[in-house]
C-alpha cells in the first residue's frame, strides 16, 4: 500500500480545461472521495492517476515514485469501473483470477487469493457462474474481488455503485466501508453522490469545473464549507441562502433580509471584524431553523407554502418575502399552508458568504 500524490496536475482536451492545477495527497490507508457534478473532471483525474490519460502538466507519485511517465500496468493500481467490465464468457473464478494469471502468479497462490476474496465478498457459492447468471450487486462484487486479489498499492473506483438500484446501492456502500476497514487499502473513489461521499470518505475533495473547491473531512465539508458551492452541493435539502445587507446601528450589527432584521451573533461578528463587506449571503441549513407558530418571538416571519411529511420528520417550505427557505422540523409539527410562522436561526450555525465571490467569511 502507498500514498498517491498529485502535484499541480492539469488536463486540457483542446479548448476544454477538464482538470486545473490539482494538488492533492491521498494518504496511505485513506479513503478519499472526489465529489462533484457531472463534467467537473473526476473521471479525468482518476484516469490520469491510473495512467489511462496523460496529464497536460504536473506530476503524479505513487509512494515516493514519480509515475507520470509509467504505463498503467506498471503503476500497481487496481481500478473498479461503473460498468464492471467483466468477461462474459468466463466464470466468476476466472474473472477474478485473470489478472493474476497474466502476471504469472502460481496456480496455488491464485486459488488462495481468489478464495479469500470470495469469502470476504460472500461469493463462495457463485464462483462457477458466469456474469449473466448474477445480479447487478453480485457482478459489482466480482469486479471488486478482481481488484482485491491483485493486492494493489491503491484502488481507484469510478462511481462503482451507480448501476445498482437504491437498496442495493446502500447495502453495497456498507460492504465497501467494511472492506476498507478490513483491508485499509489506499482508495481514490469518484462519485457525484453526496451521501456516498459523506458516508465513505475519510476525506472529501469537492470539485467544480476542474478546480478543487475544498478538501476536508466530511464533518468540515458539511459544517464548515469553504464556499457557497460546497455549502449547497452537500446536504439534502440544500442549505438555505438568503441575500442580506449588514447594517451597523448603535454599536450593533444587523442582517437585513427582505425588510426584516436579525441581530448578527457574536461569533459571526468576531469573524467579520476588519472585513469590509456589506453585500453578503447568509446560509443556514434546514435543520438549523426552528419553526414556531408564535410570530411574536423575534424570528424571521415566513409564509408557509408547502408542507412535506417524511415520516421521521417534516419539511416546511416557506417564503420570506421573495426568498424561499426550507426548514426541517419534527414529525409532530402541526401547521397549515398559508399560515405565517416565525423562523429562528441557530446562532451557532450561521454561514456567511461574500455576496460576490461566494467565499465563506467565517473561518471557524
Ligand atoms: N476525451 C475527451 N475529449 C474531450 N473532452 C473530454 C474528454 N474526456 C472528458 N472531456 C471533458 O472534460 C470534462 C471533464 O470530464 P470528466 O469525464 O472527467 O467528468 P466527470 O466529473 O467524470 O463527469 P461525470 O460525473 O459525468 O462522469 C468534461 O467537460 C468533458 O466533456
Ligand atoms: Mg465520470
Helix-strand string:
EEEHEEEHHHEHEHEEHHEEEHEEEEEEE
Q: Describe the main β-sheet briefly.
A: 6 strands, mixed
> What is the percentage of strand-forming residues?
25-35%
Could you give the count of β-strands? 20
What would you say this structure looks like, in words?
- The protein has nine helices and 20 strands.
- With 364 residues, it is α+β, with helices and mostly antiparallel strands.
- It has two domains: 230 residues, 3-Layer(aba) Sandwich (Rossmann fold), CATH 3.40.50; 115 residues, Nucleic acid-binding proteins (OB fold (Dihydrolipoamide Acetyltransferase, E2P), Beta Barrel), CATH 2.40.50.140.
- The site of adenosine-5'-triphosphate has 12 residues, from strand 2 and helix 1.
What keywords describe this structure?
364 residues, six-stranded mixed beta sheet, binds magnesium ion, five-stranded antiparallel beta sheet, OB fold (Dihydrolipoamide Acetyltransferase, E2P), alpha+beta, 20 strands, Rossmann fold
What is the topological layout?
Blueprint: E1 4-13, E2 16-26, E3 31-35, H1 42-50, E4 57-62, E5 65-66, E6 77-80, H2 92-102, H3 107-121, H4 136-149, E7 154-158, H5 166-183, E8 186-191, H6 194-200, E9 203-208, E10 211-216, H7 218-223, H8 228-233, E11 240-249, E12 252-257, E13 260-263, H9 266-272, E14 279-284, E15 289-292, E16 300-309, E17 313-320, E18 323-330, E19 340-345, E20 351-354
The protein binds adenosine-5'-triphosphate and magnesium ion.
Magnesium ion binds at residues 42-43.
Summarize the structure in short.
With 364 residues, the chain is of the alpha+beta class. It contains nine helices and 20 strands. The chain has two domains: 4-233, Rossmann fold; 240-354, OB fold (Dihydrolipoamide Acetyltransferase, E2P).
Amino acid at each position: 500500500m502507498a500514498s498517491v500524490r498529485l502535484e499541480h496536475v492539469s488536463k486540457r482536451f483542446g479548448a476544454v480545461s477538464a482538470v486545473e492545477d490539482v494538488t492533492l495527497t491521498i494518504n496511505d490507508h485513506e479513503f478519499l472521495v472526489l465529489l462533484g457534478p457531472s463534467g467537473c473532471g473526476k473521471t479525468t483525474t482518476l484516469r490520469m492517476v491510473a495512467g489511462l490519460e496523460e496529464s497536460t502538466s504536473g506530476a503524479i507519485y505513487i509512494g515516493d515514485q514519480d509515475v507520470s511517465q509509467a504505463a498503467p500496468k506498471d503503476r500497481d493500481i487496481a481500478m473498479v469501473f461503473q460498468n464492471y467490465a467483466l468477461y462474459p464468457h468466463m466464470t466468476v473464478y476466472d474473472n477474478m483470477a485473470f489478472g493474476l494469471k497474466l502476471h504469472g502468479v502460481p496456480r496455488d497462490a491464485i486459488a488462495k487469493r481468489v478464495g479469500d476474496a470470495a469469502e470476504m465478498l460472500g461469493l463462495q457459492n457463485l464462483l462457477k457462474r458466469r456474469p449473466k447468471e448474477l445480479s447487478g450487486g453480485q457482478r459489482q462484487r466480482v469486479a471488486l474481488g478482481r481488484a482485491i486479489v491483485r493486492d494493489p498499492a491503491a484502488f481507484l473506483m469510478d462511481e462503482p455503485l451507480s448501476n445498482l438500484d437504491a437498496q442495493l446501492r446502500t447495502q453495497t456502500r456498507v460492504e465497501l466501508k467494511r472492506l476498507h476497514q478490513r483491508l485499509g487499502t489506499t482508495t481514490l473513489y469518484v462519485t457525484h453522490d453526496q451521501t456516498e461521499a459523506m458516508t465513505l470518505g475519510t476525506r472529501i475533495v469537492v470539485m467544480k469545473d476542474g478546480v478543487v473547491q475544498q478538501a476536508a473531512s466530511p464533518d468540515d465539508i458539511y459544517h464548515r464549507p469553504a464556499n457557497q458551492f460546497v455549502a449547497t452541493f452537500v446536504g439534502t435539502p440544500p442549505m438555505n441562502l438568503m441575500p442580506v445587507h449588514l447594517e451597523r446601528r448603535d454599536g450593533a450589527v444587523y442582517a437585513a433580509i427582505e425588510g426584516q432584521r436579525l441581530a448578527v451573533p457574536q461569533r459571526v461578528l468576531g469573524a467579520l471584524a476588519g472585513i469590509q463587506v456589506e453585500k453578503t449571503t447568509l446560509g443556514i441549513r434546514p435543520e438549523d431553523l426552528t419553526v414556531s407558530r408564535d410570530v411574536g418571538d423575534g424570528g424571521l416571519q415566513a409564509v408557509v407554502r408547502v408542507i412535506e411529511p417524511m415520516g421521521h420528520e417534516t419539511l416546511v417550505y416557506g417564503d420570506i418575502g421573495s426568498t424561499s427557505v426550507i426548514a426541517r422540523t419534527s414529525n409532530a409539527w402541526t401547521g397549515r399552508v398559508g399560515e405565517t410562522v416565525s423562523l429562528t436561526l441557530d446562532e451557532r450555525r450561521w454561514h456567511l458568504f461574500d455576496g460576490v465571490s461566494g467565499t465563506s467569511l467565517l473561518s471557524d
